[in-house]
Amino acid sequence: MSSSPRTRGSEGWGRVLAARDRFVDAARAAGPDAPTLCSGWTVRHLVGHLLTLRDDPLSWPGVALPRLAGLTERRMAAATASGFEDALTRLAEGSPFMPMVFESPRSAWGHHLGEYAAHTEDVVRANALPPTMVDGVTADALWRRARVAARQLHRRSGGLVLERADTGAVARVLPGAATRHVVGVPLDLLVWAHRGAGPAGVRVIG
Description:
The chain is an alpha+beta fold. It is built from 9 helices and 4 strands, in the order H-H-H-H-H-H-H-E-E-E-H-H-E. The chain has helices spanning 11-30, 43-55, 61-64, 69-79, 84-93, 109-124, 136-153, 186-195, 197-200, and strands spanning 160-164, 170-174, 180-184, 203-205. The protein has a 4-stranded mixed β-sheet with strand order 2-1-3-4. Helix 2 crosses helix 4, helix 2 packs across helix 5 (84-93) and helix 7 (136-153) packs parallel to helix 8 (186-195). The longest helix has 20 residues, at 11-30. The protein is globular.
């Protein structure tokens, strides 16, 4: 596991590094052509996605703009063209910092933790790999990230309340009369925000 001036000496970034390494381990265990929870994407696609987020600014517009998605997919393919194992090694040995996250490196670690954690679950849950174990501090960080992701990804779906199944903490994420109440541990809530209830193991009320 490597570090950089952005990450060295930071407990938060240490957790990001651990999450990145967990993704690499899961990807290697599943193999490049294994399915993921990302519709139409294999594990190889996810590795290319994370490499381009980190290293390839030309690929970034297609993440948000559908008309440029083809460019992003070509850049992802180029990122893994040297072979799956080489791509995994480059992902594991570089900094986990993704410059496209427009936050200070000191405060961006929660976003990065969520990115690696969500994509790890895309691999783990699609391939029946051993479940991810989360300590309390990481769970707290994922709870914060799940609330942000749910607000961003479900803002057009009406009112939304999230509840932690492990602590009972409740957060109203979105206002609205037709409110859904989603209950789960933080990692499951993060998966729900990205992929829906099917793979998440949450309870949805309303």
